[in-house]
Write a structure and sequence with these properties.
Blueprint: E1 6-12, H1 25-29, H2 32-42, E2 43-46, E3 51-55, E4 64-70, H3 91-111, E5 118-125, E6 145-152, H4 153-158, E7 160-161, H5 174-181, H6 183-190, E8 198-201, H7 203-206, E9 219-222, H8 232-258, H9 270-277, H10 281-296, H11 298-301, E10 310-316, E11 322-328, E12 341-347, H12 349-372, E13 377-378
Parallel strand pairs: 1-12
Antiparallel strand pairs: 1-7, 2-3, 2-13, 3-4, 4-6, 5-6, 5-10, 8-9, 9-11, 10-11
Length: 392
């Protein structure tokens, strides 16, 4: 079978919420009213730290698809003032977040043990507050979220080949800048990370054989297997990767924005920025070229995310290893596209309803594990009023 990115079609139901006349969808989706509706209709589990697990109504997969968000919509009414990254969470929130992630990943690995039959993905993204509200593809909920998905490999194999030039697969052209122009210095900069549980691995050795993705990104393999997800030090290393990425991103886009090569305030690895990035002629040249393009091309300029925007994922490769990688997050692209999977979510209530009982049943199984761990309390939505699926 030819190695190529794939496009799959995933059915979704009709949205039950009505967007007020004259209001853009992205403006409504960021409102507290929408978050209240999301929790009441699709919420599964909530903790006292404001972490909310819910069913993704417009999801990527009908096999397994759920998200955990830090739902601060009742406390912080300004959508632009909500936490959008893991490093902005409080210590207790982060600890429970890690536990919920570990439990959900354990479930997926137990339920789907064969990497030849199912692709497992856990993806975290920052929903950056500087993205224009009226920009197509703007994140619908400006809160940090973790997304858990499972795709049957047969579905991916049967998917049509996607155009590698698809703007979503190329981060609207930004990944060519990172992967072709800055790949070497990006890798060199992240070598400063002193990791014991996560070991660097070339992306060519852990890319999915079906799609050939991810491409050229710094990647790390989890040594000793999934049991290490229970190790608190793993989550420390997982965050170190994020902190290294933030330093790289801030340094680069500060130079694009101001033309001034300097260490950003509050940098995590200031010495490494000075030694590796600011002394690298290629790094400075690419920043100058991008700065010139931003000045001359208003459409391109509107796609720049000036504040750190990332997608950090953990996925199971063909050999059954857990791989961690991180990329910038640009306009319109979804977290699945880091792995070469373009999901076309089409409204088809009949097709969705045929798969809904199984999907909800699996989400409720995960919820039981969270209950057993005493992490929070259940939310009984209209389709699961007593802890089991019921068609309304």
């Amino acid at each position: 079978m030819k190695q190529a990115p794939r496009t799959i079609i995933t059915p979704r139901p009709k949205l039950t919420v009505e967007i007020p006349d004259g209001m853009a969808p992205v403006e409504f989706f960021n409102s507290s009213a929408n978050l209240k509706n999301l929790a009441e209709e699709n919420g599964l589990f909530r903790t006292t730290q404001d972490l909310l697990m819910y069913r993704k109504l417009i999801g990527h997969s009908t096999e397994f698809d759920t998200s955990i968000i830090l739902d601060t919509s009742k406390r912080i009414l300004d959508p632009l003032g909500r936490p959008v990254r893991r490093d902005q969470m409080k210590r207790k929130q982060k600890k429970v977040w890690e536990q919920m992630t570990q439990i959900t990943c354990d479930y997926m690995l137990e339920k789907y043990p064969d990497p030849g039959k199912h692709l497992i993905l856990c993806g975290e993204a920052s929903l950056d507050s500087t993205w224009p509200l009226n920009k197509p593809g703007v994140p619908s909920i400006r809160m940090i979220h973790n997304h858990f998905m499972v795709f049957p490999m047969e579905q991916l194999k049967n998917g049509k080949e996607a155009n590698p030039a698809n703007p979503n697969l190329t981060d609207s052209g930004h990944n060519s800048m990172f992967l072709m122009s800055l790949s070497d210095v990006y890798h060199e900069f992240l070598e400063v990370l002193d990791l014991q549980i996560l070991e660097p691995i070339p992306s060519s050795e852990c890319a999915l054989s079906l799609t050939g993705y991810p491409q050229g990104l710094p990647s790390w393999v989890l040594k000793d297997g999934p049991e290490r997800l229970k190790d608190r030090y793993f989550w420390f290393e997982y965050e170190q990767i994020l902190r290294g990425f933030l330093d790289f991103y801030r340094t680069f886009f500060m130079m694009v924005a101001t033309g001034d090569p300097k260490v950003p305030p509050g940098a995590n690895f200031a010495s490494q920025i000075d030694d590796v990035l600011l002394s690298n002629n290629q790094f400075q040249r690419v920043a100058r070229d991008l700065r010139e393009k931003v000045i001359l091309d208003p459409q391109f300029a509107n796609e720049i995310r000036w504040r750190p925007a990332y997608k950090q994922i953990m996925y199971r490769d063909d050999l059954g290893r857990l791989i961690v990688t991180i990329s910038q997050n640009s306009v319109g692209n979804a977290i699945t596209e880091l792995l070469g999977i373009v999901v076309d979510r089409v409204e088809d209530e009949k097709a969705y309803q045929a798969q809904e009982p199984g999907l909800i049943g699996r989400l409720l199984e995960v919820r039981e594990r969270l209950v057993d761990a005493k992490l929070g309390s259940v939310i009984n939505g209209p389709n699961w009023p007593d802890g089991s699926y019921k068609q309304t």
